[in-house]
Write a structure and sequence with these properties.
The structure holds 2 protein chains of 2 kinds. Chain A is globular. Chain A is built from 8 helices and 9 strands. Chain A is an alpha/beta fold. In chain A, helix 3 crosses helix 4 and helix 3 runs parallel beside helix 5. Chain B is an alpha+beta fold. In chain B, helix 2 runs antiparallel to helix 11, helix 3 crosses helix 11 and helix 11 runs antiparallel to helix 13. The chains are: A alpha/beta, B alpha+beta. Chains A and B meet through helix 1, helix 2 and helix 3 of A and helix 1, helix 12, helix 13 and helix 15 of B.
Amino acid sequence: MALALENVKKTYAAPDGTTVTVLDVPRFEVGDGEHVALVGGSGTGKTTLLHSIAGIVAPDSGRIVFDSENATDVTQLSEAARDVFRGRHIGYIFQTHHLLAGFTALENVLLGMTFTGRSPDRQWARHLLEEVGLGERLDYKPAKMSVGQQQRVAVARALANRPRLVLADEPTGALDPNTAQQVLDVIRKLCREVGAALVLVTHDPSIAQQLDRVIRLDELNRR
Amino acid sequence: MNFFELILKQIRQRSLSTILTVFSIALGVGLAIAIIVLHREGQHVFGQTDYGYQIIVGPKASSLQLVVNTVYHIDKSPGNVKWEVLETLRKDPNFRADVKQAIPQCVGDSYNGQPIVGTVPQFFGYDDEGKRIENTEDDPNRRFTYRPGQSFEIAAGRIFNNDKFEAVIGSDVSAKTGLKLGDTFQATHGFPQPGAQPDVHKEKWTVVGMLKPTHTAADKCVWIGLTSFYTIFEHAEAEIQRNQLRTGEKMGASGGEDEGKKHYTVSPDGIITLDPDVMAGREISAILVKTRGSFNAMRMLTTVNILPDVMAVSPAVVMRDFFSNFLEGPVTLLLVISCLVTVVAAVGILTTIYNSVAARSREIAILRALGATKTRILFLISVEAAFVGAVGGAIGFVLGHAMCAVGSGYLARTLGEPINWVKVGPEELLYLVAVVVIAFIAGLVPALKAYKTPVAVNLVAL
């Protein structure tokens, strides 16, 4: 098992003083190397779920366990430990590329390796960019690339540390259908290459149905 | 990409604001370093205690003026003492025990802006016959020294004959006036202001020697024999009138230089013989005294000052007092101002990075999402600030020393004594460390803002 969530709850204080529950997931599991699509409308807690899994936000209660053999419950980790764990074991792809403007494609991928405590693997970074079809654009800065190319660099960056899990938050949401398909293909291809599980949030049924399993978030999240 | 490369990248992204910040730090640091160096090296030049002589005897007047005029050859001479004072120092049993050497100097004329000083060959370590005075085992201090262990050396030609119209020139004089060996020149009375009609004396001196550089004010002087100095008409007339005053004779009216009146004769071989009236009225601007020891110097300072119209001063003490009384305050004030400039520059770092952090909340959120801890972000921003401070400090350090190089050139031209602007003192390094620490601390403010940047909010807002 790559990931298991148990009774994960997250609430926020609303401006009127009331407490709003945005996440209440009794159980959610992702198998090793499994590619899961999460679908749901706006405000169903998709991003909060991904942030909780990634350790960007801490749930109020519940367990989020990685790797059933060497179990790590990220809810038990300090914020700094969650940051380090995320850097080493989780790849994150955002809806927009979130590349650093002053860095080239290669540097953006290397940046993904900077905070792991390991030596940056330049050769692997080049390989990833070649795999996403940008081998000729290693020294291009984001402004010189198309939206699809930018998103492909973001995919390469997410895979830079050979993560156990890739979280993709509507990675094709801002792309045209052709480019969206290309990006999905490279995500899945690279996840398979490193053996990473994938949790991909999408609105697009045609994207979702290509993955191993589709989960409707409004059924998963009982808030 | 390592941590430092990441910092450099971040800095390069805001190169203009970084350059401006570095520039403002460099100015503040440059100013402070220049003041530190000038203060330290100025103290070394002005407050030096390593004179080759211990006492300067001159008229009762401003001790500072006497020292500045005698040692640095600037400002006007405070007046003269009678020739008898020199004789007393050399021959009186009360002083002979203390005085090892007493060297007279007369000033008041110039050549092309360079001071002309009348003295004796012994000042340069030569006897009256022009032979080098050699130190011996019994007396290792026979030769007069301008600094401990350092006596004048002739670079070309020979020492002047005290009784002839001959001169030796300091090492800087040739470049400043064009004088060279074998040239003749005429002295100008005083130091005429630009545009003023110079009063050129009719006597002509021949340059017979050039001195090696001493890196003292002596390098800018034209040195002539004391006897020849008294031949100058005004000097001779003054000596005669003083003698008449002294002996109670009726003072005669000056004949004027134009009438060709002279108070000396010159033999066919060029030897000058002064008229008895001139000889009797001779006066001296200052006497450099090398004592037999420090105790003798202390005793002389007391005993000479008992004499009427004469005072003895220690140049080291006078210059040290001058430096601490007159220069210490302004220098401290300048140092405080330059430190304030540095602090203002540090605030500039704070502002620049603070603003950049506000603009970089997205980038910081991305770095956090990629695994950078809050502490890492705090460190990243603070080190960036310290790096900007260090670069500004390094440029300022070079700038400060460059300013001192310019100042050194000015001092060399005016005082004849450059400062060691290359020397780096521990206080400078301490100051530079302080600049980096201040910059680091200034960077902590925006770093704390970055530290508190909510990752989830900034990622969602994108």
